[in-house]
Amino acid sequence: MIELIKKWLVAKRTHILVWAIFIAFEITMIGLSVGAWGNPPTYAAHYLVLISFFYVHGERVMPKINRQPRYIVWRMLLVIPIEMLVYMVVCYGVDVLLTMMDARSTPTVLLSVPYLVRNLYRGFYFIFGGTGYYYIITYIEEKKRSAELETQRLQEIINRRIAEDEAIRSQNAFLVAQINPHFLFNTLDYLYHNLLSLDSKLADAVISLSGMMRFAIDADKMGNTIRLGDEVEQVENLIYLHQVRQKLQVELRVDEQATELPIIPLVLLTLTENAFKHGNLRDNVETARIEIYIENEHLHIQTVNTINHTAARNSSLTGLSNIRKRLEVAYSQRFSFTYGPTEANTFRVHLSIELAALEKANEFSYSSITI
Fold first, then answer.
1. Which tops the pLDDT comparison, 252 or 8?
2. What is the C-alpha to C-alpha distance for residues 19 and 43, in angstroms, rounded to an integer?
3. For 318, which of 89, 120, 234, 268 is 20 to 30 Å away at the CA?
4. For 234-254, b where at least 16 C-beta lie within 10 A, e where not — what string?
């Protein structure tokens, strides 16, 4: 309760200060001019009524009057006399109560003309003040709202300019991408034909690299899904390229029935590359395994490899995180994707997708996604 009072005092400190200065000034000026001073209870009661009247008019009545600006004059002519009548009745009731408590400076309350005129004047005085207060607060709020809208408009302009710049950079990158692959594939094709007569093994490595890179670059043009068997072929190319460099312990097991299933591109290839990048495939004890099979109406893709602790320390698992995001978009909640170290010092990745979800993925369009 005390904390709420403190917060209220802090929020209303400007109002409290202004009212304190106004009341002190008014009491001093009236007391000096008439040579008489009222009792503190009298001051407190009357100023409580006046301040309440001020805020009720400024914060409650005026917003209702101003709801339809075209009728504001007629509404004021109707409402203000009612307010004045209520104010006069309250003031008279307060004076009667103060008289009964012997808190007034005069012993009786007379409904005389001077009494009525004085209270009417005070009432209109504070109605005018409450009206001015309403328009000042409304003006400040409108200025604040206009400033917020202007800030929002400027932010939208900035965001639009950033988006336009990004679009220009993307277009430039796309144009470069159209040129570089063309040059790259022509060069690889040239190397293949020249190496074929010199070193068939090296020539096969070049053509495998060319096919795998073409597959990766053209992945966004393959449609929503591709045949899993097509990506398996690229995995075989990737394994072959690594085997050319050094002897590695890798085993690929593929259920032939699974090769005809549709799947979003580059999932299997990314998982395989992740095993090569972060695994210890030269370990003669534990062979790295890549397994693809169908079980319980689900497609299962699993990789298991001994952990390369040096690579693991530098790994952020960004590739696996990106795969999860793509799977969520394509298959919603109809898949399971887990990965992590096991007690046998291996890193295991397991992906399971409902077969029915694989078929529905053909309805999904990557072109509708903004990355």
1. 252
2. 13
3. 234
4. bbebbbebbeeeeebbbeeeb
| pTM greater than the 0.90 cutoff | no
Nearest 5°: phi and psi at 77? -65, -25
In this prediction, residues 228-246 reach a mean pLDDT of: 82
Give residue for tokens 């969520």: 328
| Cβ neighbours of 57 (radius 10 Å) | 24
Indicate the DSSP class of residue 102. T
Burial of residue 47 (CB within 10 Å: 0-12, 13-18, 19+) is middle
The first and second tokens of residue 299, run together, are 């497609």
Q: 195 vs 58, 192, 242, CA distance in Å?
A: 91, 5, 19
Tell me the CA distances in angstroms from 152 to 138, 163, 354, one per residue in order. 21, 16, 45
User: What whole-number distance in Å separates Cα of residue 192 and Cα of residue 303?
Assistant: 31
Give the start-to-end residue ranges of the domains of the chain: 2-157, 225-368
Q: How far is CA 361 from CA 1, 57, 223, 261, 328, in A?
A: 58, 63, 11, 11, 11
pLDDT-derived band of residue 194, with 50, 70 and 90 as boundaries? Answer: low
For the chain, helix (H) and strand (E) counts, in that order, are: 12, 7
Q: Which residues face 338 on adjacent strands?
A: 350
CB-CB contact of 354 with 366 (8 Å): no
For residue 140, what are its two tokens? 């400040």
Structure tokens at 313: 């320390």
pLDDT tens column, 21-34: 888 888 888 778 77
Greater confidence (244 vs 21) lies with 21
Beta strands in the chain (DSSP E): 226-227, 250-254, 262-263, 288-295, 298-306, 335-341, 346-354
Residue 244 has pLDDT above 80, yes or no: no
With CA atoms as reference, report the closest residue to 188 among 207, 214, 201.
207
Dig out the tokens for 1 from the structure.
């309760």
User: Which CATH architecture describes the domain 225-368?
Assistant: 2-Layer Sandwich (3.30)
Place 350 in a pLDDT band, splitting at 50, 70 and 90.
very high
Contact 131, 57 (CB under 8 A): yes
